Amino acid sequence: MDARIGDEPPYLADGRVKPRPNRVMRAVRIFFLVILPLALLGGAVVGFGYLRATRPVVPVERQSERPRMVQVVTAEPQAVQPMLLLYGQIVAGRSVDLRALVAGEIVSASPNLVEGGRVAQGEELLRIDPFAYEGALIRARADLTETRARIAELEARVRQEENAIERAREQFEIGEREVERLDQLSQTGASTVRAVDEARLRFSQTQASLESRENQLAIFEAQRQQFAAALERQEFALRQAERTLSDTTLRAPFDAFVSNPAAEPGKLVSANDRIATLAASDRLEARFALSDAQYGQLAERGDLMDRPVIVTWRAGRTTVEREARLTRIAPQVSDASFAAFAVLDDGDTGLDVLRPGAFVEVRMADRVYENAITLPPAALYENAVFVIEDARLVRVPIEILTHSEAGVVVQGDIAAGAQILSSRLTAASTGQLVEIRP
Question: Which residues pair with 308 in a beta bridge?
């Protein structure tokens, strides 16, 4: 039989007849490779659907909402004048660098002229060797005495010359009358020309003597002015020598604490060398800072100066509290704050233990805020608080007025008696269920 077109050739490459495939084996192969996997897959799908449709239904119990335990404060709107809690330090109201006024060797020093020592006004602190300055004072006194003696001598010569001038004027007048009389007599022939000439010569000599004495008196007057100027210089030199001698002794200008002493007996000092720094002990002040907002609030009323202040110093178990009064504000603003100074009142206690540099708390009354509420800082959630209504939180916006020692002063649409959340919750929100802790 001839092979059909498109059929495989009946012979192999070596010429043998190609064997025909077994049809039964082909059917078995198709069953296991195709039909059986499809049947298993369909059965699985049908079984899953049956099991899902016939599964038992388990009832789900919804978990009930649990409230958060919180603490609250009761709103009491009222006029509030909070106390500002500020911090500062004690400073000396006045201090001075004590310096040597003259040069020389220190021969004595006060036992109180030490670090931390306390000196009283007028107390002798040190003495510089006065030998050279005592000699200068002696010379000034001697020069002044000599000048005064010369003036006394000149005064005597002036008086003498004035008396001589008075006698010379009398002689001048006599000679003048004699010349006139002899002239008249010579005209009548009662006197000779020679007698008249002799009288005129004597008159001329008397006139010359008077003029000479008057000129000498003018010289004495000029010398008197010179001696007066010299006397004034000598008197000033004497006062200067006395003051320089007194400057060899340094005294405390006011009651003060001593710091940075640099004087011991035997030490040579020059004029203007620093001896110690004195800080007034009878005028201590508290220096503290007011922020821009605090300064503006206080200055708004116009009575910032002379405002009472309470200054407290704490050191371990020791607490010193003093009253003070605001006296001045620094002329310049530094780091957006105003430096304020309050003078501590002088009392029987407190000032003896306080020292410049001690850190203190300062309490000062703020302005009065109407219809305000004071809350603890934990009650604030940014610019809002949470009010509890029907056991749930309700967010209410507020305005922060100021911070005080008692808490934060705020204003808002909060009714009197409302309960405000004062606990910190990590995710506080409106509608959250809460329970007030007893």
Answer: 325
Q: What is the pLDDT of residues 247-306, one digit of tens each?
A: 999 999 998 889 899 989 999 999 999 999 998 888 889 999 988 888 887 877 666 788
Owner of token pair 């405390």: 252
Answer for the pair 372, 80: CB distance below 8 angstroms, yes or no.
yes
Stretch (H or E) spanning 342: strand 337-344
Domains and CATH numbers, the chain: 70-81+369-436 (2.40.420.20), 83-93+280-365 (2.40.30.170), 131-246 (1.10.287.620)
Rounded Cα–Cα distance for residues 184 and 197 (Å): 13
Contacts of 346 (CB under 8 A, 6+ apart): 282
121-143 tens-digit pLDDT: 999 999 999 999 999 999 999 99
Cα–Cα dist 122/259, whole Å: 18
268-269, strands of its sheet edge to edge: 249-251, 124-128, 104-109, 268-269
pTM of the model: 0.57
Q: Whose CA is closest to 242, among 128, 144, 142, 138?
A: 138
CA 303 to CA 253: how far, in whole Å?
34
Please give the angle made by the CA atoms of 86, 88 and 89, to the nearest 5 degrees: 155
**What is the residue-wise DSSP string for 148-173?**
HHHHHHHHHHHHHHHHHHHHHHHHHH
Q: State the Cα–Cα distance between residues 281 and 215, nearest whole angstrom.
A: 68
Q: First CA to last CA across the chain, in angstroms? A: 112
Paired tokens of 92 = 């000396």
Instruction: Report the C-alpha gap between 230 and 147 in whole angstroms.
Output: 7
Q: Are 244 and 102 in contact (CB under 8 A)?
A: yes
CA distance 379 to 418: 13
Task: State the sign of the Cα–Cα–Cα–Cα dihedral 166, 171, 175, 178.
Answer: positive
Helix H or strand E encompassing 386: strand 384-389
